[in-house]
Amino acid sequence: MEALDQAAPKIRLDGISKEYIVPRTGQRTLAIADVSLDIVQGEFLCIVGPSGCGKSTILNMIAGLAEPSAGTVAMDGAPIRAPGSERGVVFQDYALFPWKTVRENIEFGPRFRSDARLGAAERDKLVRHYIDLVSLTGAEHKYPHELSGGMRQRCAFARALANEPEVLLMDEPFAALDAQTRLILQEELLRIWGEDLPRAERKTVIFITHGIDEAVFLADRVAVMSNHPGRIKTVMDIDLPRPRRESLRATSEFQTLADEIWQLIRREAYEATIDRR
Ligand SMILES: Nc1ncnc2c1ncn2[C@@H]1O[C@H](COP(=O)(O)OP(=O)(O)O)[C@@H](O)[C@H]1O
Ligand SMILES: [Mg+2]
């Protein structure tokens, strides 16, 4: 791995906690406690953990959609206080505009972003590039309801990329897809991310999943979370060669890493199946 540890962090989570207070009842939930983590430029970091352990809470704070109750979240050394086009978000449920075509969805950011006034020709070129990159050429004029789940997620991905973000935040983007489509999109994501580019030219990706195999296949590092309150239990290096191809999944190196992570979260996963509230 190329000197992951020595670089200044792209994203820094420093002692963050988040407490939710339900307005009507005043009930408090400490969703995450004292989470610290540095993510460097060009890194692909996966966060895994049982349902309800605070994965989305962390991602939303990096996105600027929520504020920590304590601690700081910073990008390139500056605190994150609001959403910004340098951070693109892809959610599980596509979040496409249903009344806009594929093309119009992808074009939305480049057209309306206040800091990027592209000319029509430039914008057209940019949008075409991302449509091609995610292999949606030919489907530009379809509406989201006319697309398969996989194609919708390709469109959501292109829409996030068209803002040319430095950091991509992905919250279980493949969780609603069937198993085959999910495997295909995992490889596609790595291709689009630029596995063969130097680290400095790659986007920084923070990818949330509850799939252990998915995390091992994609990540440079996997942060494993525990529950009640959510904490980062361990961060594991995934020293598997890139580019990663389907055949990697059958290797003993891959299986060993996946097993190690499973042992770590097994107890938590078990407890999450028992509702103690
Ligand atoms: N807006 C909210 N108000 C109150 N509690 C919340 C809110 N969002 C999340 N929580 C609680 O915080 C915890 C972490 O949630 P979340 O970050 O969504 O977990 P995950 O994404 O790992 O499933 C859960 O106990 C959840 O019920
Ligand atoms: Mg979640």
TrEMBL record:
UniProt cross-references to SMART domains, sorted A to Z: AAA (SM00382)
UniProt-listed SUPFAM superfamilies: P-loop containing nucleoside triphosphate hydrolases
PROSITE patterns according to UniProt: ABC_TRANSPORTER_2
Domain annotation ABC transporter: ranges: 11-252
The protein, known as: NitT/TauT family transport system ATP-binding protein
Keyword line: ATP-binding, Nucleotide-binding, Transport
The family this protein is said to belong to: Belongs to the ABC transporter superfamily.
Annotated organism of origin: Chelatococcus caeni
